[in-house]
Amino acid sequence: MTRITVLAGGVGGAKFLRGLRTEAARRWPDGAGGTSAELTAVVNTGDDAWLAGLRITPDLDSILYALAGVNDEQRGWGRAGESERVSAELRAYGVGWPWFTLGDLDLGTHIARTSWLREGAPLGEVVTRLSSRWPLGVRLLPMTEQEVETQVEVEDGGRTRLMHFQEWWTRYRASLPALRFVQPGVDRAEAAPGVIEAIASADVVVFAPSNPVVSIGTILAIPSLARAVRDTRAPVVGVSPIVGGAPVRGMADACLAAIGVETGAAAVALHYGSRASGGLLDGWLMDTVDESEAESIRGAGIAAAARPLLMTDLPASAAIAGAALDLADSLR
Ligand code: FO1
Asked: Which fold is adopted by the domain 3-146+187-330?
């Protein structure tokens, strides 16, 4: 059986996984419309927060909702057909963040999750329970069960201060220059149950076209997880989230600037580095508009392939996933 393990953040990860699920069903059909391949997503939890007494896990939920087909495509987060009555009440009481809306349907998920966590279930088990509601076709694993929320150090009025990633991202739309990102405790965090095994026993490991700093970078900040990526026998390929010098979506450029990496397809590949020289990648899939950068990637010991990377619809996402699998196959 083919095993594919994907490191993923929210929206980019969700679109890629939907495409991968479709492509896997075409390549390895199970006879019932699905796939016999085992697809696993290791998902960033650095964006998570406690809010209004509830545990919020944005990237896990974006992927869960997208694979279940109940996501809000326009907004890119939350549930389709959402209402916001409870959020309006919370705002009137001054509870939570006024710039962060928890939809009514979405709140059902947060209440279920928090109630299971309070009963003592670890996050991995909670994700399994939430996932079992829909036939997702992808096993979702949090990167860790420990709370390692991303904080952003910003310069504000001549002083530096730390704020939660969601405040920087959602409230300020990444407009305050970030000096650095920290996830207190991540250096001591353990990968969630199943994660190391999913990477070690994979036939292919893929970095989804997610934010290389605060999604994939946060996942790889867990020491045992990065070690598993370095050590796996599977080819490790990444899909560029940067096309033509700009993020496909989101504000990855503001994140890359904070760590001193240029917003470019090659710059991100070189930032991950080649596994042949202690880095994390064997191959890099980039957009055709960035093909002129392929030579510098190859020069660094990373195989490079180019094709259109905009995930405009499901067939486009499936073709991108297929190209990532082909690139991995060429590296065996
Ligand atoms: N993004 C927003 O821009 N505004 C919001 O009010 C908001 C609420 C929200 C609630 C639950 C959830 O899971 C995600 C939510 N997001 C919201 C998206 C989220 O802030 C970010 O886009 C991701 O964390 C970055 O991947």
From this structure: Rossmann fold (3.40.50)
